[in-house]
Specification:
Elements lengths: L6 H9 L10 E2 L10 E2 L8 E2 L1 H16 L19 H8 L6 E4 L2 H12 L8 E5 L4 H13 L4 H4 E4 L10 H11 L3 E7 L11 H10 L3 E5 L11 H4 L3 E5 L12 E5 L46 H16 L3 H21 L8 E2 L12 E4 L4 H10 L2 E2 L1 E3 L3 E4 L8 H16 L3
Parallel strand pairs: 2-13, 5-6, 5-7, 7-8, 8-9
Antiparallel strand pairs: 1-3, 4-10, 9-10, 11-12, 12-15, 14-15
Helix pairs in contact: 1-13, 2-10, 3-10, 4-5, 7-8, 11-13, 12-13
The structure holds pyridoxal-5'-phosphate.
Subunit structure: Homodimer.
EC number: 3.7.1.3
Pfam families: Aminotran_5 (PF00266), KYNU_C (PF22580)
Length: 427
């Protein structure tokens, strides 16, 4: 696409955007002037879908009217509530319904999956992850490694970019996997790195991991609802993600889990168990002896969190209504492409502003990470004063994530204008 740096051009793109009506399905916070702001932080907390409140109200109503009988009565009995999320979740991540379940929160699920899929034994005990992974993932992995009696500095191998580069090359990841060979128990990466915005080639990494006999899993916190995913076809062993970032399901919202079909009937796989993962045919007989349900559902512990799930269900419905991730991705690539183009137009020297997210759309989602070596915090503050909500990561990165469901090309143009103003008159 050929872009132009004018408001008129941005508005023309919006007028022709088949997804433009979805913006109005979300609550957009007002900026400091009382005018609608530009929300560039959907990678951290997605906006509230207007349908969320009614979805939660319906469950308050059910509780009010039916109390304990709400498990069996009401518009969506709680006993089977989580099952109503399965099909939309499977579509979202490219999975079969048996491969997904919605439950708990992300770090909790990461632990549950690591218990099953990080099974160090003999000389095979290493775990490969990104250097500078999201802290919760680092802590989870560190504690799991210790749980098995290994020293983190020995068992955890971190991938770091080549000197002078900001992101990882797929060939370097593959080479490291080969080098670790039969000492490698697990590859565990983010699908999209939260800091750089780099999207990894999950199919290639999974192939490389399997070729040396390792398991491969992904934390999709920044990938779910952002990228087109084909977890089943990519042959990924497991994955999990949160729902409050690109999936717009509210702060602390519930989490999704993928376990490949080949483990659907593997009761011998070690796991931490709870009654909600037990075979439902005799779950309520309260008998001894855990028998897991088939598929990802067999990793459930507790009865479903109805309120966060009500929000999540309302939000997932919007993804389906929009036509799914392939449709959203088309707009997303254009939005982010426009933002990148506007920033490059400024021709700022790299010491002032460098986009560290890969330029190749296949290697990124909607987020651009700007490395601002001088007065980065001032840029972030200036954007905020202009009603532009970005995200600041110490020591010097501003993250901006125009998302296709509710951001417009005009939003992106306004971000470009604000960065240009800051660049000309550093505040
Ligand atoms: C957002 C995020 C988390 C947050 O974990 P919670 O358990 O939901 O608090 C963890 N890991 C990654 C990679 C994230 O991006």
């Amino acid at each position: 696409m050929t872009y132009e740096n004018t408001l008129d051009f941005a508005r023309r793109l919006d007028a022709h955007d088949p997804l433009r009506a979805f913006r109005d399905r979300f609550h957009l916070p007002l900026g400091p002037t009382g005018q609608p702001g530009v929300y560039g932080c959907g990678n951290s907390l997605g906006l509230q879908p207007k349908a969320a409140r009614a979805a939660v109200e319906a469950e308050f109503q059910s509780w009010e009217e039916h109390a304990v009988e709400g498990h069996f009565h009401g518009t969506s009995p709680w006993m089977h509530y989580h099952e109503t999320l399965t099909d939309a979740t499977a579509r979202l991540v490219g999975a079969k319904p048996v491969e997904v379940v919605v439950m708990n929160n992300l770090t909790t699920n990461l632990h549950l999956l690591l218990i099953s899929f990080y099974r160090p034994a003999g000389g095979r005990y290493k775990l490969l992850m990104e250097g500078g992974a999201f802290p919760s993932d680092q802590y989870a992995v560190e504690s799991q490694v210790k749980l098995h009696g290994y020293a983190p500095h020995d068992a955890i191998v971190e991938l770091v970019p080549r000197a002078g580069e900001h992101t990882l090359r797929t060939e370097d990841i593959e080479a490291k996997i080969q080098e670790l060979g039969d000492s490698l128990a697990l590859v565990m990466l983010g699908g999209v790195n939260y800091y750089t915005g780099q999207a990894f080639d999950m199919a290639a990494i999974t192939r490389a991991g399997h070729a040396v006999g390792a398991k491969v899993g992904f934390d999709l916190a920044h990938a779910a609802g952002n990228l087109e995913l084909h977890l089943h076809d990519w042959d990924v062993d497991f994955a999990c993600w949160c729902s409050y970032k690109y999936l717009n399901s509210g702060p602390g919202g519930t989490s999704g889990v993928f376990v490949h079909e080949r483990f659907a009937n593997a009761p011998e796989l070690p796991r931490l168990a709870g009654w909600w993962g037990h075979d439902p045919s005799d779950r309520f007989q309260m008998k001894k002896g855990f028998r897991p349900m088939a598929g990802a559902a067999g990793w459930q512990l507790s009865n479903a969190q109805i309120f966060p799930m009500a929000i999540h269900r309302a939000s997932l419905a919007l993804f389906d209504e929009a036509g799914g991730m392939s449709v959203l991705r088309r707009k997303s690539e254009q939005l982010t492409g426009y933002l990148e183009w506007l920033l490059r137009e400024l021709q700022l020297p790299a010491e002032r502003l460098e986009i560290i997210t890969p330029s190749d759309p296949a290697q990124r989602g909607c987020q651009l990470s700007l490395l601002v070596r001088q007065r980065g915090r001032a840029l972030f503050d200036y954007l905020a004063s202009q009603g532009i909500v970005a995200d600041w990561r110490e020591p010097n990165v501003v993250r901006l994530a125009p998302v296709p469901l509710y951001n417009s090309f005009e939003d992106v143009w306004r971000i470009g204008q604000a960065v240009a103003t800051w660049a000309n008159h550093p505040v």
